[in-house]
């Protein structure tokens, strides 16, 4: 599966088939097929005609001719200065029935999977247990987690007489945990939250899905960042939303481009503190523009503050939620700062939406498991979370500096993006012809995990995403050596 | 909220307002308002005209005239011999925009909640922690749970070197747990399941929502039992499905009625081992009819085996899944047999649907928390689950017999349904004029919890649902005394 997706543009979909018709018609047909099969989702950004021409070994004129026809037939929409995108609604056909037809060719006739289940296939992520190795992004290194403290609290809470961990719990979460979360986020991230606005969830994914359900109906639009965090985009598609990728620049999401592409989105999913994966901070001007849009449109901003606790240079930027608590749904996750197997995250929601969010959580899974909530509440309120963040901020910073020093070995082949925050850094290839997916795959074969930048929703970007927090000095040096060899072998 | 819903038919919605127009027009308007506001959901069953006439103190002719007009205008559909239902699609109006209009009258203009979030409001269930008191249905009594054993296993697993509880886990669940579940369900419930077909979820609700997403798209139909388990019906509505309540009789769901109401449903949610709440077992003939429909239609049966482990009289009936593993999505929950705060349930899914289910679970919340999965796997594979089921089967049976004996005190006012299985029994009032919601509310005020039968989706049924497993002899006697007094006071 990874292989097929990796070669989406370069081999499977568009490589011209020597025998059939003029080159531009073959390009056109392959793109239509990719759209009809869902390999190219609605609203997906297409590679630039220059990139396509280069990858296919065809003239740019041929590719432009194919794209013009796709535009004329309504399969592709071109936005000058922004790019070409698969159309949001396909022309002259009922999308559901056309997908059904394709579907039945592949399966026994009595098995039919829903359209929305089909949108969730090819989900980018983990189905197998993941061990942290250099340079898995977004995976907290286990060695820093104070497991003994956790075990002690667990041991105490599981035996606590009169604890409510054994019955049904409140759908919005244990009161003690909601209070601890509100106090922590208000102090560390400048949110403005009461414990009543906190909803305990199992994960960022669940928080985003609940937000999608509460503020949008199927067919309504959601802005996401391009490049951006793909699992959330799949989650939004699975919730029936029309996902509109909006380009980002050094200031964050380009609100003007969003207004141009689809002003009437019901929500915008953004990562203001540390854009995923490029690492930019959203500028104050951009924040204000985004909030202005949200106020005017009555839409909501979903702020994923996935590693807002880690900033090594400059002042920490306050959360967007603190600027407009009535328009922002703030999401934080303990799975990314403590350990992923925990499955506790949270949303801070506008007061007016508390009821609908609790209803939606209740219908989704009743409530989150109780004992772990109790242990986490104690872990936070007894000061262990602050201590852990202090300690890991220091350790990750050391690793960041070591990584950046060792990464000099790559300076002739990549340009690094900002590395002032979080747990990962992005590098773009100086030679944009290098296939980043092939590099990532070859590295994985040698025991080094790097993300391919083109997988984050903008196939025009080619480079690598490195998680630096999981690699101590020796591992970082060895891993970077392997990455360098692999890139050079691909040139 | 509870109060308003309790009096849906008897006061708020239909009580004629003395000042305005002819009686039948007032009845008509109140029902239309209830439909437009969502208080009466699409497809909801209406009380019989006899019941309405009695409750309103109007002649049956007046009520029939109102109903005929509602039928003529397309708001209500009448099925001879089955009943009257709110129409599945309302006439001459866009449902979304009409609800929006109502919505904005109640909220500040900048707050807009989605239609699907609106369907989840008035969710019947728990938002507050629930303590088990007589006669809360579906709540396992804590005193039988071997908490010391659980604590010992937890203590061992949390310290186990090399355990995978700290990283990301597989989306379908820990392998050890899936194997233990398959072995348990195959042995105890005659399912035909490999560990690969098992998907670990947090709850029955989550398993049902995943099933809805995987096999149906918004707007497609789902059969549910009437009366039936309301939280699942809300979950299906929240997933965008057109919920079609199909009446049940002593043999279970009336498949012929389902075929008449909506043959093209994508799934049927049923409780074959112990119909919730009436307690009937689905007959073999009915099982075969349901499977025949499913095979012909290419639809799926969602079998909720919520208390299939408890049968006190007669042979245990095998699961439906064992009869047709390719058509049945079987759901079991440890939250109902161990402790609700655990949040671990599972689905056994047809082989052809394993991939889409895992994708959907992954997009929903990544995976279920790991440590608890590990503890549960050990609990099952080391024999503690079997032991717990043996012990509780015996204890619940004792309580059942005591309850049935003490419940003789009610024999002049109620008729009890079957009590051969599970953890609850249903009683219908001999005098159908008694308001069961008022009785339940008055009992709650005196510290006794009983379910009002009319809340399970068929307002023509009036009676009470008693959980017997949570009440020891003394509590059962005292509780039943209070229930009797309350019923007599309502007469």
Structure, explained:
The structure is a homodimer of 491-residue chains. With 491 residues, chain A is α/β, with parallel strands linked by helices. The first copy, chain A, folds into 3 domains: 8-86, Arc Repressor Mutant, subunit A, CATH 1.10.10; 147-381, 3-Layer(aba) Sandwich (Aspartate Aminotransferase, domain 2), CATH 3.40.640.10; 387-490, Aspartate Aminotransferase, domain 1, CATH 3.90.1150. Chain A has 18 helices and 14 strands. Chain A has helices spanning 2-6, 8-12, 23-36, 49-56, 60-72, 95-106, 115-120, 147-159, 175-189, 204-215, 230-238, 255-261, 284-297, 354-365, 370-381, 384-406, 436-445, 473-490, and strands spanning 76-79, 83-86, 198-201, 221-226, 242-249, 252-253, 267-270, 300-304, 328-333, 345-348, 414-416, 424-429, 451-452, 463-467. In chain A, the strands form 3 sheets. Chain A has an 8-stranded mixed beta sheet with strand order 3-10-9-8-7-4-5-6, with helices on both faces. A 4-stranded antiparallel beta sheet of chain A has the order 11-12-14-13, covered by helices on one side. In chain A, α11 links the parallel β4 (221-226) and β5 (242-249). In chain A, α10 (204-215) packs across α11, α16 (384-406) packs across α18 and α17 crosses α18. Mean pLDDT of chain A is 86; it is low at 1-19 and 92-109. At the A-B interface, α7, α8, α10, α11 and α14 of A face α7, α8, α10, α11 and α14 of B.
């Amino acid at each position: 599966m990874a292989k097929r997706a990796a070669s989406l543009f370069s081999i499977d979909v568009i490589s011209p088939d020597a025998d059939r018709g003029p080159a531009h018609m073959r390009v056109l047909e392959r793109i239509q097929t990719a759209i009809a099969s869902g390999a190219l989702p609605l609203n997906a950004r297409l590679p630039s005609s220059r990139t396509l021409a280069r990858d296919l070994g065809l003239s740019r004129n041929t590719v432009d001719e194919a794209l013009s026809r796709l535009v004329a037939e309504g399969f592709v929409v071109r936005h000058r200065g922004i790019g070409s995108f698969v159309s949001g609604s396909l022309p002259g056909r009922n999308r559901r029935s056309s997908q059904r037809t394709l579907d039945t060719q592949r399966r026994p006739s009595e098995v039919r999977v829903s359209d929305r289940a089909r949108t969730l296939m090819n989900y980018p992520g983990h189905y197998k247990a993941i061990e942290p190795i250099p340079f898995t992004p977004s995976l907290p290194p286990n060695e820093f987690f104070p497991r003994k403290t956790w075990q002690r609290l667990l041991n105490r809470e599981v035996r606590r007489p009169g604890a409510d961990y054994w019955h049904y719990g409140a759908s919005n979460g244990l009161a003690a945990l909601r209070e601890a979360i509100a106090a922590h986020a208000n102090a560390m991230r400048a949110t403005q939250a009461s414990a009543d606005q906190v909803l305990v969830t199992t994960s960022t994914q669940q928080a985003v899905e609940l937000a999608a359900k509460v503020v949008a109906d199927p067919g309504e639009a959601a802005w996401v960042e391009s490049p951006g965090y793909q699992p959330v985009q799949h989650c939004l598609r699975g919730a029936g939303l029309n996902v509109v990728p909006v380009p980002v620049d050094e200031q964050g999401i380009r609100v003007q481009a969003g207004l141009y592409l689809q002003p009437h989105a019901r929500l915008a999913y953004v990562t203001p503190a540390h854009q995923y994966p490029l690492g930019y901070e959203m500028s104050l001007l951009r924040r204000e523009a985004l909030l202005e849009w949200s106020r005017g449109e009555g839409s909501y901003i979903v702020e994923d503050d996935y590693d807002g606790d880690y900033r090594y240079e400059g002042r920490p930027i306050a959360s967007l939620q603190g600027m407009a608590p009535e328009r922002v749904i703030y999401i934080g996750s303990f799975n990314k700062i403590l350990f992923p197997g925990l499955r506790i995250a949270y949303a801070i929601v506008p007061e007016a939406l508390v009821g609908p969010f609790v209803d939606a959580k209740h219908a989704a899974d009743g409530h989150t498991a109780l004992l772990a909530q109790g242990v986490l509440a104690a872990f936070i309120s007894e000061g262990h979370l602050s201590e852990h963040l202090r300690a890991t901020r220091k350790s990750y910073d050391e690793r960041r500096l070591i990584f950046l020093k060792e990464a000099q070995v790559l300076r002739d082949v990549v340009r690094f993006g900002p590395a002032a925050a979080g747990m990962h850094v992005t590098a773009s290839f100086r030679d944009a012809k290098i296939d980043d997916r092939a590099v990532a795959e070859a590295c994985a074969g040698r025991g080094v995990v790097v993300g391919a930048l083109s997988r984050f929703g903008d196939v025009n970007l080619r480079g690598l995403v490195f998680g630096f927090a999981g690699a101590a000095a020796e591992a970082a040096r060895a891993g970077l050596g392997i990455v360098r060899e692999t890139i050079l072998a691909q040139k």
